[in-house]
């Protein structure tokens, strides 16, 4: 696999992650200012608390690297890696926790309604 393809894989993963958490954050987008590579991609993220972060996605996982968009001022020693974006959000955004619970309850309600309709149709 060439370097361009490897870079695209990490970028695709970042885009998928941003789609997955849109319900629980105000915004999430790839940084257009910071360079991305096959080893690292940066995501600018605003939580529901209106806190802005620059999040690094690398092979080690996700970590906050700045408290402003396109900013990597945090040293690597003050920021730990998270295996998933959900674990990172769980740590930095109390409203994410509530949004996750609400989304889960909504999905369970939808499934219950679908099952009820299927039972009525048989």
What is the topological layout?
Blueprint: H1 3-21, E1 25-30, E2 40-47, E3 52-58, E4 61-66, H2 85-92, H3 94-121
Antiparallel strand pairs: 1-2, 2-3, 3-4
GO biological process, one term: regulation of canonical Wnt signaling pathway
Protein name: GSKIP domain-containing protein
Domain GSKIP: 11-111
Could you please describe the fold and organization of this structure?
The chain has 122 residues and is α+β, with helices and mostly antiparallel strands. Helices cover 45% and strands 22% of the residues. It contains 3 helices and 4 strands. The chain has helices at 3-21, 85-92, 94-121, and strands at 25-30, 40-47, 52-58, 61-66. It has a 4-stranded antiparallel β-sheet with strand order 1-2-3-4, covered by helices on one side. It is elongated and about 60 Å long. The termini are far apart. The model has no long low-confidence stretch (mean pLDDT 89).
Key words describing this protein structure:
122 residues, alpha+beta, copper amine oxidase-like fold, four-stranded antiparallel beta sheet, 3 helices, 22% strand
Number of self-contained structural domains: 1
Low-confidence segments: none
Report the end-to-end length measured between terminal Cα atoms.
51 Å
Rg computed from alpha carbons, rounded to a whole number of angstroms: 17 Å
**What's the story with the biggest beta sheet?**
4 strands, antiparallel
Q: In total, how many beta strands? A: 4
CATH architecture: 2-Layer Sandwich
The residue fraction in helices comes out at 40-55%
Widest sheet: strand ordering: 1-2-3-4
CATH fold descriptor: copper amine oxidase-like fold
SSE run: HEEEEHH
Q: Supply the CATH class.
A: Alpha Beta
Write down the overall mean pLDDT. 89
Which descriptor suits the 3D outline? elongated
Helical segment tally? Answer: 3
Structural class, by secondary structure, is: alpha+beta
């Amino acid at each position: 696999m060439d370097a361009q393809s490897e870079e695209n894989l990490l970028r695709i993963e970042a885009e998928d992650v941003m789609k997955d958490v849109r319900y629980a954050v105000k915004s999430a987008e790839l940084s257009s200012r910071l360079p991305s590579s096959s080893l690292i991609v940066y995501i600018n993220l605003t939580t529901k608390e209106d806190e802005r972060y620059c999040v690094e996605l690398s092979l080690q996982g996700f970590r906050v690297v700045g408290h402003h968009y396109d900013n990597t001022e945090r040293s690597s020693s003050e920021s730990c890696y998270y295996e998933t974006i959900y674990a990172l959000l769980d740590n930095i955004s109390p409203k994410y926790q509530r949004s996750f619970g609400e989304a889960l309850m909504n999905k369970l309600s939808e499934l219950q309604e679908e099952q009820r309709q299927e039972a009525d149709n048989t």
